[in-house]
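task queued by scheduler; priority normal; single chain, no ligands, no partner chains; default sampling; output format set to C-alpha cells
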Amino acid sequence: MRTSEPHPFRITGQVHSVDYFRFVERDETDWQVWTDVLRGEVAGVIFRGALTPDVRDRIRRNFWSSPLLGRRVQSSGAADHWCGNHLFSAPSLDWYLDEADRARTDLETLCAGPGRTPLTLLDEYRDHLADRGVRLRLAEYRGRRAAPFRLRSLGQNDTPVLAPHDDAESIRRARHIDGCEVQRVSRLCNALMCVENDSGGELLYWNISPDRESRAALGMSTDSYGYPIESLSGVEQLTVPIRAGDVYIFDTANVHAVAPCDRAGGHRTTINFLMGRLDDDTTVYWS
C-alpha cells in the first residue's frame, strides 16, 4: 500500500490587514512615517538613497580596515563580517555592556565625518521627536548604556543569507537580558542603513507573526532563527529590493529573511540597530 508524504507543518499566528502589511517608500526622509512603524500603523518604511555615495564609501573603507572587524565562516560556506555586538546573541548582559563601553567611540567614529551620516540621521530623528515632546536615547540597564549600532556584512551564498526568522518574541523571552528595559518596548523594530550591496540581498517579509505554539512545535525557544521555508507556504510575502544608500525600518515580529547576493564575491553591508517605544515619552535604540 502506497502512503502519502506527511503534510508539512504550517506556521500559525497573527496575520495582518492590508493597510498594515506594506512598505511605504520615500525618496526623502519622512520621520513621521518612521514613527508610524514604531506605533504599529504600518509594517515598514524605506528611504531610498538617504546615504550618499561619498558617505557610503567612507564607511565601507572604515569598516573593512577596522581593528574591530570580526569574521566567521557559516556552515553554508558564506563569510560573515561584523563590527560591534548584538545584545540578543551576547553571552551575558554584563559582557554586552562592557563591550558596548569599550567599542562605542570606535563604532561611532566608523560612521562619522562630513555629510549626512548615520549619526546625523539619528540626530534628525531625535530632533523630530523632541519637537513632539518625545526623547530618543540609547537603551539602558542600571544606568549603563547599550551599544548604538552594529555593522555587518554578509557574503555571497546561494541560499538566504539570513534564514526566515522573527526577533521580537525571542528578545522579550531571552533569559540573559532579564530586567533590561528593551524587553518592555511596545513594538520591537529593526532599523538598517545599507552601505554596500551590488545586487540581490532583498528583504523577504512574510505576513505572519508566529504564535508561541508554532515556535514551540518547531523547537524555537529563544532562538529566533531557522523557520523551515515550507512552513511558510501560502503565507503572503513581500520582496523589498535593498540598494546601497537605503535606510529602512520594519516590525521584527513578522517573519523575515535576507535573499542571497547575486554577484559572486559580493557583499551586503549594513549598519543595524533595534528601536522601540518604551512609553509615550521615550523611544530607545540599541544594537
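post-processing summary
- Helices lie at 31-38, 53-64, 93-110, 118-130, 168-173, 212-217.
- Residues 1-7 have pLDDT under 50 and may be disordered.
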